[in-house]
Amino acid sequence: MVYYVNSQGLICIKQNIQLLKKLLFLSLLYSVNSKAVEHKINLVTEHLPPYQIVGNDSYDVTGFATEIVLETLKRSGIQYTLTGYPWVRSYNLALQKPNTCIFSIARIPLRENLFTWIGQITEKNNAVVWGLKSNPHAQKITKLNDLKNYVTAVNKNDVTHLGMIANGFSEGEHLYVLKHTKSLLKILFKRPEIDFIIADDITISYRAKLANVDVKQLQRAYEIKVLPLDFYLACNLNTDPQLIKKLKANLTSIHHDGFYQSTINKWRSKMPHLK
Predict the structure, then answer these.
(1) What is the pLDDT of residues 185-196, one digit of tens each?
(2) DSSP conformational letter for 242
(3) DSSP bridge pairs for 84
(4) What does the alpha-carbon distance between residue 8 and residue 208 come to, in Å, rounded to a whole number?
(5) What's the mean pLDDT in 54-70?
(6) What are phi and psi of 32, to 5 degrees?
(7) Shortest CA distance to 180 belongs to which of 48, 25, 20?
(8) DSSP per residue, 139-151
(9) CB–CB of 123/264 below 8 Å?
(10) CATH number for the domain harbouring residue 107
């Protein structure tokens, strides 16, 4: 190999070495940052008191299930963001975005292969058909198929919507589908063609408060035992397996070391079914 050495050439070599050092440093920095991003979870949820209570700011989320989920992330040492959206948006984000997890989501057969299921975060509960006390048809509902004679409002893509479709109900004929949770109870009062809604014993009083109506104006028409509201924390299928492993282990520990029960006790006054 032949070298041509002069002062200009030597300077050029030194500059190239410095450039290589800078490029190597930037490459390492990018690698570290990429790993940091990979170990971050984006949590999405909806306003569903008392499980999740979204304040005026969509990043201000409290509630019973929220405390369980955030404790799980804390024990796992995982950084996160938490945002409350309408249910349809949260659901789609969790379906489409890696390292995105959603709560509280009911675990049903239709969803089983769509998510990685971390664990249960609430007590078991069943869906309930509610109507106005002035509705004479409520007394006629003795089995699920009786509802096919009426119009029932449900929230799009939630467990009641998907569950009713799985049980032979059709949109437009038996079901009136809403995009926003806050509209569910209001529509029962404003739209006479809507006979019933589907909610549950835990959230109905909060829905009534949200809609500024008296819960005593409602009657419990029928409990849908084939639609258990078994709420979970679940993640996108392409979420980092190491994060999944940590989340599962730490949520299990929460159920075993008393934190879950102590959180239930704290929220007992806000969750009448637990009294």
Answers:
(1) 889 999 999 999
(2) H
(3) 45
(4) 81
(5) 93
(6) -65, -45
(7) 48
(8) GG--SGGGGGGS-
(9) yes
(10) 3.40.190.10
Q: How far apart are CA 90 and CA 96, in angstroms?
A: 10
Domain limit, last residue, from 228, 246, 262: 228
Residue 163: partners with Cβ closer than 8 Å, 6 or more residues away? 108, 127, 224, 226, 227
The burial class, CB within 10 Å (0-12 / 13-18 / 19+), for 262 is exposed
User: What pLDDT sits at residue 90?
Assistant: 96
Measured CA to CA, the distance from residue 88 to residue 90 in angstroms comes to 6
Q: How many domains does the chain have?
A: 2
Rounded Cα gap, residues 160 and 198, in angstroms: 7
Phi, psi of 207 (to 5 degrees): -65, -40
Whether the pLDDT of residue 8 is over 70: the answer is no
Report residue 145 as tokens: 């198929």
Q: Are 28 and 87 in contact (CB under 8 A)?
A: no
3-state secondary structure of 38: helix
Q: Which residues are CB-contacts of 112 (< 8 A; sequence separation ≥ 6)?
A: none
